[in-house]
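Protein modeling request. Please complete all fields; requests missing the sequence field cannot be processed.
Requester role: graduate student
Desired output: 3D structure, token encoding
Chains: 1
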Amino acid sequence: MRYLPLSDDDRSQMLAAVGADAIDDLFVDIPEGARLDGVIRELPMHASELSVERQLAAMARKNMVAGEVPFFLGCGAYKHHIPASVDHIIQRGEFLTAYTPYQPEIAQGTLQVLFEFQTQVARLLGCDVANASMYDGSTACWEAIGMARRITRRTKAILSSGLHPHYVSVCNTMAKFTGDVLETAVPDLTAETDAQRLIDAIDDQTSAVVVQYPDILGRITDLAPIAEAAHAKGALLIAVVTEPVALGLIKSPGEMGADIVVGEGQSIGVGLQFGGPYVGLFATREKYVRQMPGRLAGETVDATGKRGFVLTLSTREQHIRREKATSNICTNSGLCALAFSVHLTLLGQAGLRQLAEVNHSRAANVARRLSSLPGVDLVNDSFFNEFTVRLPVEARPAVHALVERGILGGVSLGRLYPGAQALANGLVIAVTETVTDADIDALEAGLKEVCA
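Delivered output (452 residues):
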């Protein structure tokens, strides 16, 4: 029998304490169509282990695996080659845990890795200090907005139209509980970013301006004028990087005046894995370090003068009084952060730059070839390894038609912005070092067919 410790009276008291009449009241934010009403009738009530294995294997075969077909998907999740040595190292016994060490005296190796990870992230993002990682890029983005509220004591953030809509969605969800006002917009299918709109919108009530770099369409903009305008009004600039490999070629956000830089580290060391787990990056200026969420691994010496590592700052609700906590993030993505650090160490500064150059070169080649197709227009006038094209037909059906030809040809803006008719023909295409000449030929031929 299952152990059910609560009585009906216990449940009634708990519901009364939170102001709910019934358990169903706790799930009002979940659409009714997504709620489970009773058992899943499509599944058998019981089955043998062998039968379950076969059924799940048959379901898995329906997936189109990234490494087996021409792959041009991006928009925040990128397919890069990860050396086999990364997986070998992170599976060593002393490393194989996704959780954070609580006893530094027996976790010196893990703490040292986190310390080195922080150093790498800070240098990559162009900031003074970085934390020991977050869950993913979207939650890191929201934590940055919360941090800006604490620093400026203001509650209005202006989000660029080029910020990934999934990141915007996460921020909107969290803002319901904090009272933050988020000004958002849908991007225009043009080469120009909304930098001027952001600058014009900054006022004395603005806590932060949030800009993605490169943005959701792959466009790259100079962040310095936005930072200058934000600082003139006492606001902060938050930069979001979803493709950290780009920073091997383009100037870091910190160099251009960003006060907080966050991002998704999946590109380096962490595979796609059908959606996660990923690793959030978070860095800032030294003067804001005590408002930074998560935790910070620091270097020190022990009683005998030997080098050692500790959790220097850990301002989360499990460690200090809840009302004083800067975040409810309860762990860092330790194993993914290790994979990121190992891969970046293997690349080194020169290797990262070389990898970035290959990405950009191949992307430029694909953009040139596709824009020569009848009716296909290149939107970007600047990009790293991801760009947007305007098709002569609606992009979402075109993507499905490419899938039928065994090609994952990009992300349609109609999928990201349902209902935005002006974006319906937009297709975002990502090109990394894993794309072969045969893949490019297949995409060019496929688009030529579906756009005819």
